[in-house]
Amino acid sequence: MKLVYFAWVRERIGREIETVALPQEVETVTDLLTWLKGRGDGYAAALEYPEVIRVAVDHEHVEHEAKLPADGEVALFPPMTGG
Amino acid sequence: MKLVYFAWVRERIGREIETVALPQEVETVTDLLTWLKGRGDGYAAALEYPEVIRVAVDHEHVEHEAKLPADGEVALFPPMTGG
Amino acid sequence: MAERCQPLVRVEAEDFDIAAEIDRLTAGRKDVGAVVTFTGRCRDESGRLAALELEHYPGMAEAEIGRIADEAVERWPLTGLTVIHRFGKLRPGENIVLVVAASTHRKAALEAADFLMDYLKSRAPFWKKEHPAGGEEGRWVEAKTEDEKALGRWGKV
Amino acid sequence: MAERCQPLVRVEAEDFDIAAEIDRLTAGRKDVGAVVTFTGRCRDESGRLAALELEHYPGMAEAEIGRIADEAVERWPLTGLTVIHRFGKLRPGENIVLVVAASTHRKAALEAADFLMDYLKSRAPFWKKEHPAGGEEGRWVEAKTEDEKALGRWGKV
User: Fold this and answer.
1) Which end of chain B, N or C, is more open, meaning fewer C-beta atoms within 10 Å of its C-beta?
2) Which domains does chain C have, with CATH numbers?
3) Is the CB of residue C66 less than 8 Å from the CB of residue C7?
4) pLDDT at residue D150 in the model
5) CATH fold of B2-77, please?
6) Which chain D residues contact residue C34 at CB under 8 A?
């Protein structure tokens, strides 16, 4: 699975992009956030309040309850401040 | 009293501007419309439905119940269609 | 609350330059977060309109638009407001009216432009006459009751 | 009901030309009665902002703005719609975002521009970082709950 990070999520994690092999029990967006949080201090800092993290799968916003696709690009970022 | 007319009120009356001496009993805008209506066919055609006529005194909209000033410019015109 | 801006009102036959009017309200300024322009244009979907003739009441047109603009700068925290209304014969595709509202915040600029257009339609002393292609006699455009009703949204002015 | 127009969406670093964008939606056309432009600008009343840095998600930014624009042309009878969002470092007084909505009728153009801005604020994948004058570390702008609430006005999208 390709993961991409933006804004302070990217800064705290310390990378823009990475490819991960997800354990089988990671099925939903919420599962992914919980799993990532355990990968180190940067991840823990970025995902301290997972409920504020916005997630997109293949360029479309998804809810945290959404199932992850078998493959694709999952993006994690803070609430948007464009416009 | 100076009277000015616009749009189809002007066209039906057949003039843009005139100065009239009002009889003493003409006190309000409604009185003026009634009095003008009796001045000839053009006036009668222009003021057939006096309730639709808009009136301004010295460049400010006024209601038909308003008292006329002793002197000044009174404008009669149809509902506006600017913008 | 910031000082109220002084609206610019023009009633003229010539066309306006939208970019220049935006520039007038924004050049060199760092306090303008949002600029809204509304342009009303002469429209003819039927192909039967030769021109729209806009008659106005000189003096009152400027005064009445000025009153409406002053009301807008009292209601919304605008950093700038410009209203230009043309008169004379305009062909389909030509500009009729321009409102430019600038503010620190976007809602103020949008609402002020909306308010201005509602009031210009029903309160500014302008009258439109449609001149059909073919040279027949022109026809005065009738006021729409929906325009009058739209004013209800803004309360007492 | 007229055919739906195809919105134009651009995400780019360069500044935009508002007059040229209006022209694109109106030149040679007699069916456009109203054009609304909304310009969002980089603002700094305090004098302490050196630049605003706009990060975006390439690919998704265009796709998401495209979805919002498509929704707008379904909801309102627009004759044209353009949305341009800049990214990169912008200084106070510079343009950030432009919406141009054209329609036969004024309410459609105004409402569509208002809708677009509400959705761009809270749904388009852009993030603002403020770089203070003096060279200290930049600070990410926090999303406003009022922006999120503003979406409630438009029902389900």
Assistant:
1) N
2) 8-131 (3.90.1170.40)
3) yes
4) 79
5) Ubiquitin-like (UB roll) (3.10.20)
6) 38-41
